[in-house]
Each structure stands twice: as C-alpha cells, then as structure tokens.
Amino acid sequence: MPINASITLRSDGPTSVNGDRIRLLEAVAREGSISAGAKAVGITYKAAWDWLDALANLFGLPMLDTRTGGRAGGGATLTPAGAKVIEAYRRMEAEMARVVRLIEPDLAGSGISPLNLFSGYFMRTSARNVLRGTIVSIDADALNADVALAVSDETTIHATVTASSLKDLGLIVGREAIVLIKAPFVMIAPGTKPPTVSVANRIAGRIARIETGTVNAEVVLDIGGGKSLAASITARSAEALALAEGNPAFALFDAGHVIIAID
C-alpha cells in the first residue's frame, strides 16, 4: 500500500523531516529559486524560508546555495547536504512502505493499522526554534541543573532542567540533544554589545529577515554555523528598536524557557 511517511532522519523525535519539506527542496532544485519552489508546492515565500531554516537548524548545514539575480527573484541550488537529505528520505520512505506491506497481512482483522504502529514513534512540535547540539557542560545541584549545549562553534545555549529530568533523560557531557524554544520567549536587542539583563542566553547574530504584521513581527536572527533563531515580538517594538535586515543583534531568552529533547 502507498505510504506518506513523516520521517525523522536523525531519530531525534521532536521535529520531523516530512514529505512537504522534502518536496519543497525538490521544487527549489527543479525551479531554480526559493520563490518559484514555494509557489510550486503551494506555500508562501515566508513559509518556505521557515522550512529551510528549520532544516538547516536540524542538520547544522544549509540545504541550499542561494544567490541574487536568478529567475523569480533569486537563484538557488541544492548543496551536497540538501541532495543527501532528499536521497536518504526517499530511500527510507520506500523502505518503510516495504515494511508496511510485510506486516499488514498479520494485522488483518485486528482493527490495527500498520500506520498506527509507526505514528507513535514520530512527533511534531509547535516550537519555532528547534536546534541540534552537543552537551558541553552540566552544573547540577540537588534540585536543578544548568545544561549547556553547543549548537554550533559560535553558539552555546543554556537550559534549566530538574535533577530528575537530568537522570531520566540520561543527559551527560558529550551527548547530542535537541533544544526547543518558542519564538514568543525570545527577545531581540539590537547592537554589537550584549545588554545587561538577567537571562542566561544572550546569543549574538545578524538579522536575516523581518516579517511585520499589524500587531506582531517575526525576526529571524542568523547565529552562524548555518543556524538561526526566530523571535516573535510586537510590531511596535520592532519599529521602536529600528530593527533592519543585516544589522547585528542579540537573541535573549531565559534558560527556563528552553526544552531539551533526546533521541
């Protein structure tokens, strides 16, 4: 039977590399630009960038090489990593379909669908920011622990977890993990000098994009290493701070607003 699987290639659980994102990559490669690829799969240009940012954060590598002056407002081609992601996803999708065909006869008449078995292994998250990293330090007491994860050579994110969570998740230095931060928890401060505020995370970067609505604005900060952080702030704040694409800024968020997930 045909199957449209949502496959997490890294087996990290919280975020899936689903067929829609793979189709976007394929469409951009085929059409030669992000805007044309977005149109081909029926999503907005902003949504396309959001998906591409998520993939880059997930794998730590950009999926596309972009350039100005191409057709439809700018050219884009697959990076070697992007091509490998597509190939791996399609191969895993085909393999999962093969497994479903094998086990389906054994489940006949039971009321259980093969897809029910697979769906429990995959989750999606509403968190806008999902980044993979490696635990570089843990500072724990009897109640809580500060866990520091390097998500790139330039960026370390701190998370506060309970002592029981530290044990239950098996968090140790050197282990890979995922950090999740909802965009409304992230504040933006323009400039090159980190502000003096009582938050554990003050992440330097440059403003890559700003999408402003009547009430809110989304600010995407390039934090290096092919990764980004998105903040959801009020449109009034974006205007008052005079935020502009290309300018340096800091993403600010508390360690208590960071969730850690593991494979």
Automatic annotation (TrEMBL):
Residue span of region Required for dimer formation and molybdate binding: 125-133
MF (Gene Ontology): DNA-binding transcription factor activity; molybdenum ion binding
Lineage: superkingdom: Bacteria
Pfam family, one: TOBE
Any one GO biological process: molybdate ion transport
Sequence ranges assigned to domain Mop in this UniProt record: 124-190, 196-262
Alphabetic keyword roster: Molybdenum, Repeat, Transport
Entry keyword annotation includes Transport: yes
Keyword match Manganese: no
Entry-linked SUPFAM superfamilies: MOP-like, Winged helix' DNA-binding domain
NCBIfam families: Mop
Family assignment from sequence similarity: Belongs to the ModE family.
Name used for this protein in its record: Molybdenum-dependent transcriptional regulator
Species the sequence originates in: Pleomorphomonas diazotrophica
UniProt lineage: Bacteria, Pseudomonadati, Pseudomonadota, Alphaproteobacteria, Hyphomicrobiales
